[in-house]
Amino acid sequence: MTEAPQEPSSARRAALGVSTDAETVCGIYGYLAEGGVKIWIDGGWCVDALLGRQTREHPDLDVALAREDEERFIEHMTDLGYTKRRDDNDTAWNYVVTDDRGRRVDVHVFEYDETGRNVYGIEYPHGSLTGEGTIDGRTVACVAPEWMFAFKTAYPPAEKDLEDVRALSETFGFEIPPTHR
Question: What is the pTM of this model?
């Protein structure tokens, strides 16, 4: 006897949404969590998570991912219809996965040794991935506010970065450097 197909979980249904909106982000986050894959929200969605509200549209979702979870991450994202995009800018530790709708997840892989020193990939300082925020009512792990502010002020800003820096400054009391005023 053939079994009837199972209805996808609510997290999987949400992750299969149409755009990189809050529902899609929460769906991806939830689906990965259900599968035992921990990610930390980074980038613009991290800023919004820390603020507890969406401040702008986001063309992609940036995530930090421990190297030990990368294989399972790829398997789960494949289940959701995402594949690695092939690009000359890709590295083994920083690449983009996309789906056939054009949604993008920018993946930042890292690894710490037993002392907390970064030994592979994106150099997230030890302690920087201790933030907690909220997206669409869901609590998510993310970059800590002081580190997100430091990351956002470490390069010449685009207009969206200036807005993010202002919002983080207003919420957390960080002093905006002259380059970002």
Answer: 0.88
